[in-house]
UniProtKB/TrEMBL annotation:
It is found in: Membrane. PANTHER family: CMRF35-LIKE MOLECULE 3-RELATED (PTHR11860:SF118), POLYMERIC-IMMUNOGLOBULIN RECEPTOR (PTHR11860). It comes from Labeo rohita (Indian major carp). It comes from the Eukaryota. This is CMRF35-like molecule 5 isoform X1. Keywords: Membrane, Signal, Transmembrane.
Length: 184
């Protein structure tokens, strides 16, 4: 009987304290990323997101505190946690942990984040006009300055099956215009 109780307790605690496996996410500098973690039996527990080694000073955001900075954490109430990181930087690459504050030992889910140099962002507005803007940083750039900005606008025709280009511009932000233009 003692062996049964010990075995049951070991199974219960190992399930309760286990991680669900590593999450791997990739993003680009100046971009945003969303990480979703899931924990069992954690609906009423506080959650937090931390950088490895996940000591007290490594906690970036908690579910029971108002988020500050680039990190937000949303607790769905069913054990699922969504972490949103804005304005990614290459230095953000590394190991993180989605964690649940539990009596005794906290539970953790491993997150590997890789942030690459360079980004492309685009915004679009749809109504009677359509406009797009993209700013790019080349992945192999030696610095973090954006090298080119591309803007394009168009208006929809009455049948909305075609668009007529109204404005398109390629503007270089560096003195390396010729070298970059040759790579486009």
């Amino acid at each position: 009987m003692k062996l049964f109780c010990v075995a049951w307790l070991w199974i219960f605690l190992s399930e309760f304290n286990s991680t669900t496996g590593a999450i791997s996410k990739q993003g680009y500098s100046e971009g945003n990323i969303t990480i979703t973690c899931s924990h069992r039996w954690a609906a009423n527990n506080n959650k937090y997101f931390c950088r490895d080694p996940c000591g007290h000073l490594d906690i970036l955001v908690k579910s029971d505190q108002t988020p500050t900075g680039r990190y937000t954490l949303k607790d769905s109430g069913d054990g699922t946690v969504t972490v949103h990181i804005t304005h990614l930087q290459e230095s953000d690459s590394g190991i993180y942990w989605c964690a649940v504050d539990r009596f005794g030992f906290d539970t953790f889910e491993n997150v590997k984040l890789t942030v690459f140099k360079g980004c492309v962002t685009a915004t679009s507005t749809y109504n009677s006009h359509h406009s797009e803007e993209a700013n790019g940083v080349y992945r192999n750039a030696t610095d973090d300055r954006p090298y080119a900005t591309i803007k394009k606008s168009s208006t929809m025709s009455k049948d909305e099956s075609q668009s007529d280009p109204v404005y398109q511009n390629l503007h270089f932000n560096t003195t390396q215009e010729e070298a970059i233009y040759g790579n486009l």
